[in-house]
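Input structure tokens:
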């Protein structure tokens, strides 16, 4: 089949976010005048090594956050955020933290997530995450469409859970990924591939 997104599609669910998959999940912690916030975002990836940089997409808005969501509103306010990887055992908590709670509600408490402080920024992080990236905001780019934004951050600190380091490599027991729709997957089998000379 072929369709033009501007014209819609004949399927019962939009296939776009299931096509670009699997995607890592950024479980983002923020702090603002109303308190702490935690929410998952699956339009997320790393984009540069030196300095290390990440981006994530914020889409849609809440009525109590002036054209965006709690996460982006608080990042604009404080200029920092933490990106926590989601351990498989935290799947239910991650899902619970996606609830559209009122501005000022603490999803760490709502979802029963252990909270810790970051080292380089004034921001909460998930204490049990396999890894956490402490980030300073570089820029927010307005994207096409209503309430679509790209958030660009520089990584200023990295936490790695000790059991996720093996022989000097970051190797968590499994990686939770988003596949689109309501589908998720665990990546548990790895293989290595040598690049061509000079690659």
């Amino acid at each position: 089949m072929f369709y033009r997104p501007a014209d819609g599609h004949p399927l019962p669910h939009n296939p776009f976010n299931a096509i670009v998959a699997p995607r890592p999940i950024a479980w983002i912690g923020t702090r603002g005048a109303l308190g702490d916030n935690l929410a998952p975002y699956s339009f997320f990836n790393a984009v540069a090594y030196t300095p290390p940089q990440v981006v994530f997409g914020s889409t849609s808005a809440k009525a109590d956050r002036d054209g965006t969501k709690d996460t982006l509103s608080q990042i604009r306010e404080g200029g920092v955020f933490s990106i926590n990887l989601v351990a498989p055992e935290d799947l239910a908590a991650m899902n619970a933290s996606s609830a559209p709670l009122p501005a000022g509600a603490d999803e760490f408490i709502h979802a029963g997530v252990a909270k810790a402080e970051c080292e380089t920024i004034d921001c909460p992080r998930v204490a049990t995450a396999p890894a956490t990236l402490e980030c300073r905001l570089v820029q927010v780019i307005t994207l096409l469409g209503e309430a679509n934004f790209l958030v660009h951050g520089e990584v200023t600190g990295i936490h790695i859970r000790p059991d996720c380091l093996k022989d000097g490599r970051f190797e968590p027991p499994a990686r939770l990924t988003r596949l689109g729709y309501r589908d998720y997957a665990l990546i548990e089998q790895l293989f290595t591939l040598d690049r061509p000379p000079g690659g």
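The first helix runs from residue 16 to 19. The domain at 24-165 is CATH 2.30.110.10 (Pnp Oxidase; Chain A).
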